[in-house]
Amino acid sequence: MLKHKAVRLLGGAVAAVAALGMAVSAQAQEKKIKIGVVYDLTGPLAGGGSELNYTGAKIMIDNFIKQGGVEGYKIEAIYADAQSKPDVAINEAVRLIEQEKVNLVLGFFSSAQCVPVAARVEQLKSFMWITTCISTGVVENKNLKYVFRPQASGQQFGLMAADMIEKNAKAKFGKEPKDMRVAIIHEDGSYGVDVAKGNEAGSKKAGFNIVMKEGYSATAPDLSSLVTKLKRARPDVIFHTGYNPDITLFARQAREQGLKFGALVGHGAGYGVYEKLKDGMGSDVNYVFNIDPISIWLANQATLDPKLPPVIKMVGEEFDKLKPGVAIRSAHVGIAASNTYVFFTEVLPRAIKKHGGIDPEALRKAALEVDLPEGGTMLGFGVKFAGEGSPIAGQNERSFPVIIQYVDDKSYVVWPKSQQQREPVLPLPKTSGFSNQ
Fold first, then answer.
1. Gap between the Cα atoms of 399 and 421, Å rounded
2. Which of the residues 6, 16, 149, 338 has an alpha carbon 20 to 30 A from that of 390?
3. CB 343, CB 64: distance < 8 Å
4. 397 with 385: CB under 8 angstroms?
């Protein structure tokens, strides 16, 4: 009896060990990183560029899923719709972290959402990778540890607009910078306010005559009073930060009231979605400027890391399958695709191999060690994040936007000089319905 009992016990122990081994093996095979992806898929921000950012991020995530993941970790993406509402964005980020148990949240188009979401994610000691929103206020003087943004900041956008006009004032407008009449209009959320600060700082530095500076609600049903004030101010140049449909509303009412000017410089968001911009402005979309990180399809590929052009080609082919017949591939698609690619190729593998896994601390340490030179991303800029103690901790210090101009259903980089494909057309030619010539 004792012998049989011993055999039974031994058999049971062997079975238990085998079961444990299989469980450990299965666990090893099932290493997974769960990523919560948040963009606006409905509401006004969806058509203003957020849905295109979602498309770019998803193309890149799906690409890494097809490759089998990263460093032995399978990738599971859980997508959430912020519905163009800050409170929904916060709730969805918290839900993804607390209920879905994601390892990080990625995405975010609207600065009005980014500011409160970043604070909440930091409070939860989770990790946030921002692909798109640009407000400097997201990180400025917040000393965030777990929030990182490879994207350029809003004040950089505003400063670059003023720089282009200053450098072209005499040659193109025939005026000294001090004689240039500039109007700054913007939606009154975090995004618009931040870019407008850059516009104002750049304009003061250039010595422009700022004839008007005014914000408005992006959901305003009527902007005719704003247009009336602009008519009285008689600006040579309008710096405008808005989404859509407010840009469309502004353009329509400006046309109806006969507003004239020499240049319209937009700053990303609605100005980065050419199809919608043309729908709203018609032929007057010709010669409008937009400031954004460079479209990955306009980047000088000779200056990029050699492994990037094939990735750019892949993103373009996948986008064309999803949205065939688009005249200009929006920069928004490439922004999200490129910034998502940096996470999967630079942050995640370093966190796993060097810092032991995918917890927020490992991801944070890995992000701080990213050191890409100019040309190291599909957007042309490099990546190096400001660290703890910096007033902009978590911000990529090597990022920069460019200025493109729409001409005959094509987009061309016109500023800065180092990236220029052609000279900017300034002021608006007489063929434009808004020309003051």
1. 20
2. 338
3. no
4. yes
C-alpha–C-alpha distance, residues 189 and 313, integer Å:
35
CB atoms within 10 A of CB 342: 24
Residue recorded with tokens 């604070």: 119
Q: Are 339 and 351 in contact (CB under 8 A)?
A: no
Give the pLDDT confidence of 25-70 residue by residue, as tens digits: 444 457 999 999 999 999 989 988 999 999 999 999 999 999 999 9
Between the alpha carbon of residue 279 and those of residues 158, 276, 283, 284, the distances in Å are: 25, 5, 9, 10
Secondary structure percentages of the chain, helix, strand, coil, to 5 = 50, 15, 35
Q: Which residue has the tokens 């992006």?
A: 218
Count of positions (residues) in the chain: 437
The DSSP bridge pattern shows strands 128-130 and 104-107 to be parallel
pLDDT at 3: 47
Q: Which residue has the tokens 């000779």?
A: 302
CB 288 within 8 A of CB 271: yes
Which residue's structure tokens are 């200053």? 166
Long-range contacts of 95-100 (CB under 8 A, 24+ apart): 96/36, 96/38, 97/36, 97/121, 97/124, 97/126, 98/124, 100/34, 100/36
Query: Is 317 exposed, middle or buried, given 0-12, 13-18 or 19+ CB atoms closer than 10 A?
Result: exposed
